[in-house]
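Below is how a single chain appears once it has passed through the pipeline. First comes the sequence as given, then the structure the pipeline wrote out for it. We keep one example in the README because the format questions we get most often are answered faster by looking than by reading.
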Amino acid sequence: MLLVLSEEQKAHLGCLPGAGAAAVGELGRLAVELLRRGAAPRACEAAARKLNIGVDTLQHGIEGLTYLLTESSKLMISEIDFQESIHVLGFSDELNKLLLQLYLDNRKEIRSILSELAPKLPSYHSLEWRLDVQLASRSLRQQIKPAVTMKLHLNEYEDQTAQVLQTDPATLLHLIQQLEQALGEMKTNHCRRIVRNMK
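Resulting structure:
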């Protein structure tokens, strides 16, 4: 699978050939540091002075490298696909090899950083349900009014939470149909490809 770069990202990476091999290594180190610790303006300014390039140019280069490394790591692009993805940039073979080595050295760490940044969503623990039927009231002697009450227990971080939901059977049947349709949709080739690329 090839990584598709936008024109803006290509422009950001366009500063790399003029920077030199040592500068690209430094930009790669700063890109990984950006992922680890967040933005560091002082480190960028110091690196810009050291490499004799503008701060804006350096920041654009870091942003371009960060995108290239994160997306490649996220999609687990192979070495060949990575080389073909950056080949369209028109860099020299030496720079392409340097970028490939930077990717291979850091992809496991970048994947672990990205997994830590992913939001922790609640997960299902158990479900309790009850069917209530109101047969009559003071004003209406013959009335059938069913209601389904559910208590959904979720694991959220280390805690357990509970949500109480109440609905009528018709709405519950509609909800079941929609969920079954969504599960059926997950079995299509298109969705399987998307899920595989998200891992």
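Strands lie at 123-134, 145-156, 159-167.

See the next section for the split statistics.
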